[in-house]
Amino acid sequence: MTKHLLSSGDLSLEDINNIFDTAGRFHGRGRFLKGRTVVNLFYEPSTRTRTSFELAAKRLGADVVNFDVSTSSVEKGEDLRDTVTTLESLGADVLIVRHPNRGVPQQVTGWVDCSVINAGDGTREHPTQALLDLYTIREHFGKLAGLRVGIVGDVHHSRVANSLYFALAKVGAESILIGPRKLVSSRPGPYISYDLESNLPELDVCYMLRLQTERRQYITTDYTRHELKEYGKKFGLTKERAAMLPDHAIIMHPGPMNRGVEIDSDVADSPRSVIRDQVSNGVAVRAAVLSWL
Ligand code: CP
Description:
By secondary structure, the chain is an alpha/beta fold. 38% of the residues lie in helices and 15% in strands. The chain has 2 domains: 8-126 and 280-292, Aspartate/ornithine carbamoyltransferase (Rossmann fold, 3-Layer(aba) Sandwich), CATH 3.40.50.1370; 128-275, Rossmann fold, CATH 3.40.50.1370.
Protein backbone atom coordinates (compact mmCIF):
# COMPACT_ATOMS: atom_id res chain seq x y z
CA MET A 1 0.00 0.00 0.00
CA THR A 2 1.28 3.47 -0.85
CA LYS A 3 0.63 5.96 1.92
CA HIS A 4 2.13 9.27 0.75
CA LEU A 5 2.76 11.10 -2.52
CA LEU A 6 5.84 13.28 -2.10
CA SER A 7 7.74 13.05 -5.38
CA SER A 8 6.92 11.95 -8.90
CA GLY A 9 10.27 10.13 -8.77
CA ASP A 10 8.70 7.74 -6.24
CA LEU A 11 6.04 6.61 -8.74
CA SER A 12 6.56 3.49 -10.84
CA LEU A 13 5.24 3.26 -14.39
CA GLU A 14 2.60 0.87 -13.01
CA ASP A 15 1.55 3.47 -10.38
CA ILE A 16 1.20 6.14 -13.06
CA ASN A 17 -0.89 3.87 -15.28
CA ASN A 18 -3.08 2.85 -12.30
CA ILE A 19 -3.77 6.49 -11.46
CA PHE A 20 -4.58 7.32 -15.09
CA ASP A 21 -6.89 4.30 -15.43
CA THR A 22 -8.71 5.31 -12.25
CA ALA A 23 -8.98 8.94 -13.39
CA GLY A 24 -10.37 7.85 -16.75
CA ARG A 25 -12.76 5.27 -15.30
CA PHE A 26 -14.69 7.29 -12.79
CA HIS A 27 -13.77 10.82 -13.86
CA GLY A 28 -13.39 11.98 -10.33
CA ARG A 29 -16.64 10.58 -8.90
CA GLY A 30 -17.34 7.77 -6.43
CA ARG A 31 -17.75 7.29 -2.68
CA PHE A 32 -14.25 6.00 -1.97
CA LEU A 33 -13.63 8.59 0.75
CA LYS A 34 -16.99 8.60 2.55
CA GLY A 35 -16.33 9.12 6.25
CA ARG A 36 -12.76 10.35 5.62
CA THR A 37 -11.42 13.84 6.28
CA VAL A 38 -9.11 15.62 3.85
CA VAL A 39 -7.32 18.79 4.97
CA ASN A 40 -5.89 21.34 2.55
CA LEU A 41 -2.93 22.87 4.40
CA PHE A 42 -1.53 25.59 2.15
CA TYR A 43 1.23 27.90 3.40
CA GLU A 44 1.47 29.46 -0.08
CA PRO A 45 -1.28 30.84 -2.33
CA SER A 46 -3.02 28.55 -4.83
CA THR A 47 -5.95 28.75 -7.22
CA ARG A 48 -5.83 25.48 -9.17
CA THR A 49 -4.29 22.92 -6.81
CA ARG A 50 -6.28 23.81 -3.72
CA THR A 51 -9.62 24.12 -5.52
CA SER A 52 -9.16 20.92 -7.53
CA PHE A 53 -8.16 18.91 -4.45
CA GLU A 54 -11.24 20.26 -2.66
CA LEU A 55 -13.53 19.37 -5.58
CA ALA A 56 -11.89 15.95 -5.99
CA ALA A 57 -12.23 15.08 -2.29
CA LYS A 58 -15.86 16.25 -2.16
CA ARG A 59 -16.72 14.23 -5.27
CA LEU A 60 -15.32 11.18 -3.49
CA GLY A 61 -17.56 11.82 -0.49
CA ALA A 62 -14.89 13.11 1.93
CA ASP A 63 -15.28 15.87 4.49
CA VAL A 64 -12.94 18.66 3.39
CA VAL A 65 -11.30 21.29 5.56
CA ASN A 66 -9.55 24.23 3.93
CA PHE A 67 -7.22 25.21 6.74
CA ASP A 68 -6.66 28.97 6.63
CA VAL A 69 -3.11 29.62 7.80
CA SER A 70 -3.67 33.39 7.98
CA THR A 71 -6.48 33.11 10.58
CA SER A 72 -5.04 30.15 12.49
CA SER A 73 -2.80 29.90 15.54
CA VAL A 74 0.15 29.81 13.11
CA GLU A 75 -0.18 33.61 13.31
CA LYS A 76 0.38 33.34 17.10
CA GLY A 77 3.58 31.39 16.55
CA GLU A 78 2.32 27.80 16.55
CA ASP A 79 4.96 25.65 14.91
CA LEU A 80 4.37 23.33 11.98
CA ARG A 81 4.64 20.13 13.99
CA ASP A 82 1.98 21.28 16.47
CA THR A 83 -0.28 22.38 13.62
CA VAL A 84 -0.16 19.06 11.75
CA THR A 85 -0.47 16.87 14.86
CA THR A 86 -3.45 18.99 15.98
CA LEU A 87 -5.11 18.52 12.58
CA GLU A 88 -4.53 14.78 12.80
CA SER A 89 -6.02 14.70 16.32
CA LEU A 90 -9.06 16.46 14.86
CA GLY A 91 -9.51 13.54 12.45
CA ALA A 92 -7.47 14.29 9.31
CA ASP A 93 -6.94 11.17 7.20
CA VAL A 94 -5.10 13.03 4.44
CA LEU A 95 -3.01 16.21 4.70
CA ILE A 96 -2.43 18.03 1.43
CA VAL A 97 0.58 20.23 2.09
CA ARG A 98 1.92 23.21 0.16
CA HIS A 99 4.85 25.07 1.69
CA PRO A 100 7.50 27.54 0.48
CA ASN A 101 10.30 25.38 1.94
CA ARG A 102 11.68 22.32 0.20
CA GLY A 103 11.13 19.00 1.98
CA VAL A 104 8.34 20.09 4.35
CA PRO A 105 5.77 17.45 3.22
CA GLN A 106 8.42 14.77 3.75
CA GLN A 107 9.13 16.20 7.22
CA VAL A 108 5.40 16.10 8.05
CA THR A 109 5.27 12.35 7.33
CA GLY A 110 7.57 11.88 10.34
CA TRP A 111 5.08 13.54 12.70
CA VAL A 112 1.73 12.06 11.63
CA ASP A 113 0.28 8.65 10.77
CA CYS A 114 -2.13 9.91 8.11
CA SER A 115 -1.37 10.21 4.38
CA VAL A 116 0.50 13.25 3.14
CA ILE A 117 0.34 14.62 -0.40
CA ASN A 118 2.90 17.11 -1.61
CA ALA A 119 1.00 20.00 -3.23
CA GLY A 120 4.24 21.90 -3.95
CA ASP A 121 7.28 22.36 -1.69
CA GLY A 122 9.36 25.39 -2.59
CA THR A 123 11.43 24.78 -5.71
CA ARG A 124 11.50 21.00 -5.17
CA GLU A 125 8.44 19.07 -6.41
CA HIS A 126 4.75 19.24 -7.38
CA PRO A 127 3.93 15.61 -8.25
CA THR A 128 0.18 15.91 -8.86
CA GLN A 129 0.86 18.71 -11.37
CA ALA A 130 3.16 16.32 -13.28
CA LEU A 131 0.49 13.60 -13.22
CA LEU A 132 -2.22 15.88 -14.60
CA ASP A 133 0.23 17.16 -17.22
CA LEU A 134 1.05 13.63 -18.38
CA TYR A 135 -2.62 12.68 -18.33
CA THR A 136 -3.40 15.69 -20.55
CA ILE A 137 -0.60 14.83 -22.99
CA ARG A 138 -1.75 11.20 -23.16
CA GLU A 139 -5.35 12.30 -23.67
CA HIS A 140 -4.22 14.37 -26.67
CA PHE A 141 -1.71 12.01 -28.34
CA GLY A 142 -2.99 8.65 -27.08
CA LYS A 143 0.55 7.83 -25.91
CA LEU A 144 3.48 9.24 -23.95
CA ALA A 145 6.52 7.16 -24.90
CA GLY A 146 8.66 8.67 -27.62
CA LEU A 147 7.20 12.19 -27.43
CA ARG A 148 9.58 15.14 -27.24
CA VAL A 149 8.66 17.72 -24.60
CA GLY A 150 10.35 21.13 -24.36
CA ILE A 151 10.21 22.51 -20.80
CA VAL A 152 10.84 26.20 -21.33
CA GLY A 153 11.83 29.06 -19.06
CA ASP A 154 12.49 29.36 -15.34
CA VAL A 155 13.59 25.76 -14.78
CA HIS A 156 15.83 26.79 -11.89
CA HIS A 157 12.94 27.75 -9.60
CA SER A 158 10.35 25.33 -10.92
CA ARG A 159 9.02 22.43 -8.84
CA VAL A 160 6.71 21.75 -11.78
CA ALA A 161 9.72 21.26 -14.08
CA ASN A 162 11.36 18.86 -11.61
CA SER A 163 8.30 16.67 -11.16
CA LEU A 164 7.48 16.71 -14.86
CA TYR A 165 11.05 15.83 -15.80
CA PHE A 166 11.06 12.76 -13.48
CA ALA A 167 7.63 11.62 -14.64
CA LEU A 168 8.42 12.01 -18.36
CA ALA A 169 11.51 9.85 -17.90
CA LYS A 170 9.37 7.15 -16.23
CA VAL A 171 6.99 6.94 -19.20
CA GLY A 172 9.71 6.98 -21.86
CA ALA A 173 9.21 10.52 -23.17
CA GLU A 174 12.13 12.81 -23.96
CA SER A 175 12.60 16.16 -22.17
CA ILE A 176 14.65 19.10 -23.25
CA LEU A 177 15.16 21.95 -20.77
CA ILE A 178 15.26 25.30 -22.56
CA GLY A 179 15.92 28.73 -21.06
CA PRO A 180 18.43 31.42 -20.17
CA ARG A 181 21.74 30.06 -18.93
CA LYS A 182 21.22 31.25 -15.33
CA LEU A 183 17.78 29.58 -15.14
CA VAL A 184 18.59 26.16 -16.61
CA SER A 185 22.27 25.43 -16.17
CA SER A 186 21.91 24.32 -12.53
CA ARG A 187 19.76 21.34 -13.57
CA PRO A 188 21.01 17.94 -14.60
CA GLY A 189 19.46 16.56 -17.75
CA PRO A 190 20.18 14.65 -20.89
CA TYR A 191 19.73 17.77 -22.91
CA ILE A 192 19.77 21.47 -22.09
CA SER A 193 19.47 24.33 -24.57
CA TYR A 194 19.76 28.08 -24.25
CA ASP A 195 17.94 28.73 -27.51
CA LEU A 196 14.17 28.42 -27.91
CA GLU A 197 13.61 29.03 -31.61
CA SER A 198 15.96 26.33 -32.91
CA ASN A 199 14.15 23.71 -30.80
CA LEU A 200 10.54 24.62 -31.58
CA PRO A 201 10.25 22.69 -34.90
CA GLU A 202 11.27 19.46 -33.12
CA LEU A 203 8.76 19.55 -30.23
CA ASP A 204 5.55 17.60 -29.76
CA VAL A 205 4.79 19.53 -26.57
CA CYS A 206 5.91 23.06 -25.76
CA TYR A 207 5.57 23.38 -21.98
CA MET A 208 5.99 26.99 -20.86
CA LEU A 209 6.97 27.66 -17.23
CA ARG A 210 6.00 30.64 -15.13
CA LEU A 211 8.82 33.10 -14.48
CA GLN A 212 8.85 32.93 -10.67
CA THR A 213 9.59 36.51 -9.73
CA GLU A 214 8.60 35.83 -6.08
CA ARG A 215 11.45 33.30 -5.74
CA ARG A 216 14.15 35.59 -7.12
CA GLN A 217 15.75 35.86 -3.67
CA TYR A 218 17.03 32.33 -4.31
CA ILE A 219 19.24 33.48 -7.17
CA THR A 220 21.94 36.08 -7.15
CA THR A 221 20.52 38.36 -9.83
CA ASP A 222 17.23 40.22 -9.36
CA TYR A 223 14.90 40.65 -12.31
CA THR A 224 14.80 44.28 -13.37
CA ARG A 225 12.03 45.57 -15.61
CA HIS A 226 14.57 45.54 -18.44
CA GLU A 227 15.46 41.88 -17.74
CA LEU A 228 11.80 40.86 -17.79
CA LYS A 229 11.44 42.49 -21.20
CA GLU A 230 14.62 40.82 -22.44
CA TYR A 231 13.43 37.46 -21.07
CA GLY A 232 10.14 37.82 -22.97
CA LYS A 233 12.02 38.80 -26.14
CA LYS A 234 14.21 35.67 -26.06
CA PHE A 235 12.02 33.06 -24.36
CA GLY A 236 8.43 34.31 -24.54
CA LEU A 237 6.10 32.17 -26.67
CA THR A 238 4.74 34.68 -29.16
CA LYS A 239 2.37 33.97 -32.06
CA GLU A 240 5.36 34.03 -34.44
CA ARG A 241 7.27 31.47 -32.36
CA ALA A 242 4.20 29.26 -31.86
CA ALA A 243 3.97 29.10 -35.68
CA MET A 244 7.44 27.45 -35.70
CA LEU A 245 6.04 24.40 -33.86
CA PRO A 246 4.95 21.39 -35.93
CA ASP A 247 1.22 21.45 -36.77
CA HIS A 248 0.49 18.58 -34.38
CA ALA A 249 2.28 20.17 -31.37
CA ILE A 250 0.41 21.33 -28.28
CA ILE A 251 1.13 24.20 -25.88
CA MET A 252 0.97 23.79 -22.10
CA HIS A 253 1.45 25.95 -18.99
CA PRO A 254 0.86 24.93 -15.34
CA GLY A 255 -0.55 28.36 -14.40
CA PRO A 256 -0.71 30.94 -13.06
CA MET A 257 0.49 32.63 -16.26
CA ASN A 258 2.42 35.85 -16.68
CA ARG A 259 0.68 36.80 -19.91
CA GLY A 260 2.98 38.87 -22.09
CA VAL A 261 6.13 37.60 -20.35
CA GLU A 262 6.57 33.83 -20.88
CA ILE A 263 3.47 33.42 -23.06
CA ASP A 264 1.40 35.82 -25.13
CA SER A 265 -2.35 35.92 -24.59
CA ASP A 266 -3.24 34.99 -28.15
CA VAL A 267 -1.04 31.86 -27.84
CA ALA A 268 -2.39 30.90 -24.40
CA ASP A 269 -5.95 31.13 -25.72
CA SER A 270 -5.26 29.56 -29.15
CA PRO A 271 -6.82 26.24 -30.29
CA ARG A 272 -3.51 24.36 -29.85
CA SER A 273 -3.27 25.42 -26.21
CA VAL A 274 -4.44 22.68 -23.79
CA ILE A 275 -3.98 24.85 -20.70
CA ARG A 276 -7.66 24.71 -19.74
CA ASP A 277 -7.67 20.91 -20.23
CA GLN A 278 -4.77 20.71 -17.76
CA VAL A 279 -6.89 22.52 -15.17
CA SER A 280 -9.99 20.35 -15.80
CA ASN A 281 -7.98 17.13 -15.70
CA GLY A 282 -6.56 18.21 -12.33
CA VAL A 283 -9.81 17.21 -10.61
CA ALA A 284 -10.00 13.67 -12.07
CA VAL A 285 -6.29 13.00 -11.57
CA ARG A 286 -6.28 14.30 -7.98
CA ALA A 287 -9.38 12.26 -7.21
CA ALA A 288 -7.56 9.22 -8.58
CA VAL A 289 -4.52 9.98 -6.41
CA LEU A 290 -6.73 10.33 -3.32
CA SER A 291 -8.48 7.02 -3.94
CA TRP A 292 -5.18 5.31 -4.84
CA LEU A 293 -3.58 6.39 -1.52
N1 CP B 1 -0.13 25.05 -11.13
C1 CP B 1 -0.37 25.37 -9.85
O1 CP B 1 0.15 24.78 -8.91
O2 CP B 1 -1.27 26.39 -9.70
P1 CP B 1 -1.74 26.99 -8.29
O3 CP B 1 -0.55 27.68 -7.68
O4 CP B 1 -2.85 27.97 -8.64
O5 CP B 1 -2.23 25.87 -7.44
